[in-house]
Write a structure and sequence with these properties.
By secondary structure, this protein is of the alpha/beta class. It contains 12 helices and 8 strands. The protein is 44% helix and 16% strand. Strand 3, helix 3 and strand 4 form a beta-alpha-beta unit.
Length: 257
């Protein structure tokens, strides 16, 4: 982490978990544990149906609420979809875009990711853009090239003044939900390469201001080591974000002076 130049952000991704009742119980449990983080921003990205209630439940906890996806169009015949403007109006601050599960199960492409980034920015949201490689791609030695392509595709047409509002999350696909985790050195190396891509596109000042998270089985035990890497500015947390005590431990690791 480097707080001198950029924000540290710990974001939870609940995926398809927790009812309204469970969301309220989570809020009641985490409130006395969390305190008031001084050095990092805390975000919970929750299912659509939980968003309005979550904004109420967490309003006194310094937890910002995010969404897990949005559509790239402003309106239209897209049954079951939600626009970025809809999210903004109910109080959402962040939105995850291009998660590997969306790419794998719902055929999202780098092209649609880019369109969603633009839609989110236009609505005033902060996109959390996910990039990452499969195990096969890593073993082929093409991680750097693939990640660079994904970052460039996601940022295509984005102005320099907008890039500071974007969070990039490096999530190696082989480490999501598998219990496997990239070593701190592996995570740090790829996050450094991501920043180098942004630097080449927008210059050093913009690049050093961009928050780059690590995702992929970050948990209470390994968070401190991962966050000690200079280019790892937080985490996009899956399973551990469903457990208040575990999630708070990760926040505490990011909140060390």
């Amino acid at each position: 982490m480097n707080r001198r130049y950029r924000k540290t952000i710990i974001a939870g991704n609940w995926k398809m978990n927790k009812t309204l009742t469970e969301t309220r119980a989570f809020a009641d449990e985490i409130r006395p544990l969390l305190g008031k983080p001084k050095w990092c921003e805390v975000v919970l990205c929750v299912p659509y149906v939980n968003i309005p209630a979550a904004i109420r439940y967490f309003k006194d906890t310094r937890i910002a609420i995010g969404a897990e996806n949005c559509h790239y169009e402003a309106s239209g015949a897209y049954t079951g979809e939600v626009t970025a403007e809809m999210l903004k109006e109910v109080g959402v601050k962040y939105v995850i875009i291009g998660h590997s599960e969306r790419r794998q199960y719902y055929n999202e492409t780098d092209f649609t990711v880019n369109k969603k980034v633009h839609a989110a920015l236009e609505a005033g949201l902060h996109p959390i853009v996910c990039v990452g490689e499969s195990l096969e791609q890593r073993e082929l030695g093409i991680t750097s090239e693939l990640i660079a392509y994904q970052v460039k595709a996601a940022l295509a047409g984005v102005a320099a003044e907008q890039v500071r509002r974007i969070v990039i999350a490096y999530e190696p696909i082989w480490a999501i939900g598998t219990g496997k985790t990239a070593t701190a050195e592996q995570a740090g190396e790829v996050c450094e390469e991501i920043r180098a891509v942004v630097r080449k596109l927008y210059g050093a000042r913009v690049a050093r201001a961009v928050t780059i998270q690590y995702g992929g089985s970050m948990n209470a035990k390994n968070a401190a080591e991962l966050l000690a890497q200079p280019d790892v500015d937080g985490g996009l947390i899956g399973g551990a974000s469903l457990k208040p005590a575990d999630f708070v431990q990760i926040v505490n690791a990011a909140n060390q002076e």
